Amino acid sequence: MLTTSEIPGSPSIHSSAQKLPHRFSTPATDRILVVEDDRAVQKALKRLFEAEGYSVQIAPDGNAAVEIFRAGAPSAVVLDLRLPGLSGREVCREFKTQSPVTPIIVLSATSDVSDKVLLLELGADDYVTKPFSPRELLARVRAALRRTIRPKTTEKFAFAEVNVDFSKMEVLREGKAIALTAQEFKTLKFMVQNPERVITRDELLNEVWGYHNYPSTRTVDNHILKLRQKLERAPANPVHFRTVHGVGYKFVG
Fold first, then answer.
1. Mind listing the pLDDT tens digit for each residue in 166-205?
2. Strands 170-173 and 199-200: what pairing?
3. What's the pTM?
4. What is the pLDDT of residues 34-57, one digit of tens each?
């Protein structure tokens, strides 16, 4: 089992959680079920997720986890593989039978590829190897949640004097073509998918660049600056791509 001493940066995951930007947009219904028998790890994960605005339930074994799940499916599950009672694999199978859309992020002390393949075939949505980075685990849970609830974006979108056709990767501003890079298109699309919501720089990095290939948060700032220069009427006083100081950005249509 994983102990807090194995988590990078312990003492512990708590200090890392406090440094993460607050997830202002977490709905009250976002509930994370943590299935883990190690008490120290239970407490660490509870602090990590609650610091981001999630509610957390703890199941210390497979049987308890199944009972909690049957009483009401959570928004997402963080599942340790090595459990007393029902194994993590059996729990994963049972959860997906009960609610196929609930994302499951597996924690495992083994990095064996065959284990990863098996879990993914059973329906797990992601796989994190112990010892793990709190920031990475949080990013993966967030990404899994967004994949289940993200609304579809129409291929054509308009705001102010700007018209966007995502399928053709074309942007017109006052009828004139505006050239955007592929990453600028991705950034724009993610922001219009999440209107009026505060989006952290880390979230943009996760969604647009992918957490496996982290550039710096300065990269995000530069892309937002470019979008303002190309799409805002007054880039120095943006109306649509707004800064939320100390957190990130917000798109207002």
1. 888 899 999 999 999 888 998 999 898 888 888 888 888 8
2. unpaired
3. 0.53
4. 999 999 999 999 999 999 889 999
Q: Which two tokens stand for residue 64?
A: 């308890």
Question: What does R_g of the chain's alpha carbons equal in angstroms?
Answer: 20
SS3 of 149-162: the string is HCCCCCCEEEECCE
173: domain CATH number is 1.10.10.10
β strands within the chain, DSSP E: 31-35, 55-59, 76-80, 104-108, 126-129, 156-159, 162-165, 170-173, 176-178, 199-200, 241-244, 248-251
CB 116 within 8 A of CB 128: no
DSSP string, 102-170: S-EEEEES---HHHHHHHHHHT-SEEEESS--HHHHHHHHHHHHHHHHPPPPPSEEEETTEEEETTTTE
Of 220, 212, 211, 225, which Cα lies nearest the Cα of 248? 220
Q: For residue 241, which phi and psi values (nearest 5 degrees)?
A: -105, 85
Tokens, residue 26: 């977490």
Domain boundary among 149, 181, 196: 149
Find out whether 126 and 212 touch, Cβ atoms under 8 Å: no
Helix and strand numbers (H, E) in the chain are 9, 12
- Domain-ending residue, one of 126, 149, 172: 149
